[in-house]
Please model this.
Amino acid sequence: MNFSYVNPTKIQFGQGQIASIKDLITQSSKVLVMYGGGSIKKNGVYQQLSDALSGHQWIEFSGVEPNPTAEQLEQAVIMCKTEDIDFIVAVGGGSVIDGAKYVAAAACYEGDGWDILIGQHAIQKAIPLGAILTLPATGSESNSGAVITKASTKDKLPFMHPLVQPKFAVMDPDVMKTLPERQLINGLVDAWVHVCEQYLTTAAGNMVQDGYAETLLKNLLALGKDYANRDNDQWRANLMWTANQALNGLIGAGAAQDWATHMIGHELTALYHVDHARSLAIVQPSLLRNQAANKAQKLKQMGMNVFGLADSETLVADTINAIEAFYVSLNVPVQLTEHTNAKSEAIEDIIKQLEKHGMVALGESQAITLDVTRAILEEAVA
Ligand code: NZQ
Ligand code: ZN
Model:
């Protein structure tokens, strides 16, 4: 496939790099710092940030929730408009960075920001932003995507635009020291599925993309196996860089992409508040079993090159079992138990949302229709 590729985000990797933002933001800029529920106040990130911005004029917007909502972000949009903000610094995980992307674009639009998510507004302008990453998982720190929820209707939708791609991303692995176990594991799983979404598709002989995807998968597998040694600079640095590379556009360039697991997973999060990564571990094994015939060639390749399995008649199934076993080894559930109604009702609720969102032909070959999704959910929902 032809492709055009650029990743313009400047990466500042390593210990102590938060200080470098001082020189990355124009002195005359009026800055809005956005962050989440306060973890950055406990791990020294807020202090490092305050020191770095001591010569800048800045204000803050705190309390961005996991799975950020348009309703809450609207307050930050108003702040940008009334305070004439001309640079945003997002300090957090995917939720804060995605939230900042939404605010950056919505603040340059007179209408309702949600129009961006439903294709009613094409972004023309956005406030420039930079990211200080505190949770390696989504890759949002150096990509152009964001996922925003409308709480009132339980719609969780993605948008992408080059104007919201961060100008810089600070990745200091030390900030991971305060991450709860659950979030650390979520990061591993999310990054893993990001690679799968771009790799477990049609075989096209893309030696660079396939080879690099396999390296990233092997890294994540190794970090998972070495989980007992996670309190280690090298372990942290490797996870942070691997998760970034998993969704910075490189392995997806010129490759067929799937993303069905993500689109179905987003509905589980919106309806049942399942953590993003956990929604993926619930959907993906069942989806791969359902789509095994379409994905056979790449599943075999993954089995041999990532898991070191021997070629055999059962290789496709063995690979999917190995993926599932990886999640189980990290204590990540592979079935949805969060729903409170009957299984059949839960499945229909998910299907209704997918239909409403136009997610009716998902996957690299649009083979995942609503009926196919229903069959996948029969296995994925407890
Ligand atoms: O809010 P605070 O107090 O900071 O706590 C957060 C939050 O509760 C905490 N945390 C983050 N860094 C920490 C920390 N706690 C202690 N120490 C630290 N260093 O972790 C919790 C979860 O944070 P969140 O940002 O929600 O997690 P994640 O990075 O997994 O982001 C998930 C969101 O990203 C979207 C998901 O849909 C979800 O909304 N995604 C964005 C993508 C993108 N932009 O490319 C792609 C992904 O597939 C994904 O869909
Ligand atoms: Zn993801």
